[in-house]
Amino acid sequence: MVANEALNSIPALLARNVRLHGDLPAYREKEFGIWQSWTWKEAAAEIRATALGFLALGLERGDHVAIIGRNRPALYWSMVAAQMCGAIPVPLYQDAVAEEMAYVLDHCGARFVVCGDQEQVDKVIEVQDRIHHIEQVVYVDKRGMRKYDHTHMNALADVVAEGKAGHYRFDAELEKRIAELDYDSTCVMLYTSGTTGKPKGVVLSNRNIIETSKNSCEFDRLKAGDEVLAYLPMAWVGDFIFSMGQAMWAGFCVNCPESATTMMTDLREIGPTYFFAPPRVFEGQLTNVMIRMEDAGRFKKWLFHRYMAVARRVGPAILDGTQVSAGDRFAYALGNLFVYGPLKNSLGFSRIRVGYTAGEAIGPEIFDFYRSLGINLKQLYGQTEASVFITQQPDGQVRSDTVGVPSPGVEVRIAESGEVFYRSPGTFVEYFKNPESTASTKDAEGWVATGDAGFFEEGTGHLRIIDRAKDVGKMADGRLFAPKYVENKLKFYPSILEAVVFGNGRTMCTAFINIDLTAVGNWAERNNIAYSSYQELAGHPQVYQMIKAHVEEVNRSVAADPMLSGCQIHRFLILHKELDADDGEMTRTRKVRRRVIEEKFADLIDALYAGKDSVYTETEVTYEDGRKGSIKATLRLEDAAVAGGAAERMAAE
Amino acid sequence: MNLQDTPQDNPMTAEGYTTPDGRKIGGVLMEMRNITLRFGGVKAITDISFDIREGEIRAIIGPNGAGKSSMLNVISGFYVPQEGEVWFRGRKRPPMKPYQVARQGIARTFQNIALFEGMSVLDNIMTGRLTLMKSGILQQAMWWGRAEREETEHREKVEKIIDFLEIQHIRKTPVGRLPYGLKKRVELARALAAEPRLLLLDEPMAGMNVEEKEDMSRFILDVNDEFGTTIALIEHDMGVVMDLSDRVVVMDYGKKIGDGTPDEVRNNQAVIDAYLGVAHD
Known about the structure:
By secondary structure, chain A is of the alpha/beta class. In chain A, 41% of the residues lie in helices and 22% in strands. Classes of the chains: A alpha/beta, B alpha/beta.
């Protein structure tokens, strides 16, 4: 690395990468069945031409450029091109309906919108009668776009071509604007998914992104030659850090899948060395493996179970580099030959050096499964306001129940209320156009409230998160109510996709359960249970029986913890529809919106507490294209046995 | 080839029209003149005439047993009518084998899906390119010279179609394992692979749910829009037909009872009677 070089913006990092790794692949995208790739040199040329094209269209300093679409090199390049012009990229969730998009587009005041395809353009046009500041729409995929009014619309390829053609006119201006960028200029603005209320625009500076990327790359020794798969929403801070910040800092290659549905095949073809996925992806893969093993022949099944037992016993220890006997090492090597190697290969995890999961709690069995295969899966804890990293697990100190030690450069303290606070170079600048929220989240000394309750484990110094601070409550008799704790335990069962527990201020806890259609569907097939719809399967008596057994098991495990024994579930129901972001029940990052669900399904909650056996309900649903409909159902309400011991002891004390 | 090479100018070829949504429809691509088709003593089609114009979406509708599929089979050259003439691209078409019709630029899909179940989606679509391949059996078997170059070219075209119809995720899946709606899409892909001038769709929406129908309608419109392919389709679902097509031929008991824009057809008394089931003498 050249010393005393001003690496204070993404465009500066790009220029450095061209110099250091010019001929290494920087971006790949699978298109027309083939991985197309671009070296740093080629990518930089494209980005520069895009920036020149943006100047030709009249992009000004400080403008916001909305970016909407699935992960594609062209969209990442548009973000860097916008930065070069002194503008601020604002990636949006591509699966948001027009209504949600309207709020963000309006709030950031975007003049330019870059869309991935016709679907996104249509949504932008739909909201344009209300939002008048959008002047230019640029689209990547030309399909279906010929008939649109192009007076304020351009194909990105044409913008790039114009940029190339007109470079004599704009070169000087572009150089001037790039030179103006410094550590304090805004790198990106990302909207929080908003578990409560409206999304907030988090302003992150070059300092935030680059310092964080630098620290985290050093922490895990990420370098040029590493490979990531960019498949998580571009609007999410994680993708921006992994596919933009860290990729630019370390100079590694970003691979974009062909489409959302081919992600698993593409993952396998690329074999990333650095991989991030939310727990549900790992859960889904494990469920798939287990379902397919059920269908395998007897010998294969025996081999699988025999060697998975070995892996569970010694795998994590080998991964952590602790002492393991020669015999066990030999058995593990055999297992690697017969089972782990081929399994990892078919999952696309053969080359993983560093894997992370975050966002939700991951089931210990799931976590251990991957670790025992020799996949270095770790946990981290972070949020948009911190440019992701607050704490993370160092190699060799990995456990499923902690989120690790503070990341390099990050200070963490626990307030008296139990809430976790942090301060770091990655701490956000402000919420856009929202000084009140900025002030209430970040204090004068730069400490940020996470909204999560947690504590440091004695001895190890690892942070453990209990729950969202505002979700933790008290039951009517004063016992602690921590819904997430119980929900996570429920969600560790493959049949349960989501769970929502109620009980704040009440005498007992109740729960809504969402079944996992893949797992339960397969189970139904195996047990000769016929069903014609999600709703029918969810209401099937045998499914109820199975879920009831799970709930009771969870109750026993919750009862073992005297502090939380009040959170046992007395009654539950299985919801007739999947909780969905389109209906506002979840955020786009698939976190449950508790308040919305409480309001929307108030009738069901009342019925649970009124002790009824069944309840009739009508629910409004939103289809993908934004139209509304309703589904009617009569739901069964079920009692679950509660493990009495601990609860009574508590009461007696 | 035993094509009759006597081009005759068709008086209607010159003019075209513009659709309500602003698409330019060209001259006559195919014309059926007084077609009568008999199976023994049964008259499947009686004296029907209509034309299909360059770039339009033309529907043939009618109740069960109206003779729609027979009509499509006449267009595709599978049936040879006893009376009447088929004109294609300004020439009278002599009776010909289906592969000859395919070479002329006509491709079709089938009502009861006719794909190779054991072959992958990709291979199935590649078969659609067969009439466009020029290398000989020996070259292909030895994977030598032109065969290799050709396959690369054809694969490129096929991948564009896969991308267009959004079936990348099933590229390598054997067709037998696909659900019905996707099979229909693969069949459309195979027909498109032949780069047809005229695409015949036999009940493209049959047996589909609402969502699949919407997807298929979208694809049909996009094919017409992107590739400029002329499309003739048979369909039961009146709603779909009225939304998709530029002009509609209505058949009943082997006779043509209506022909015109969807609106004209909708208000045609004979058509209403046929669909509401007025007693026939």
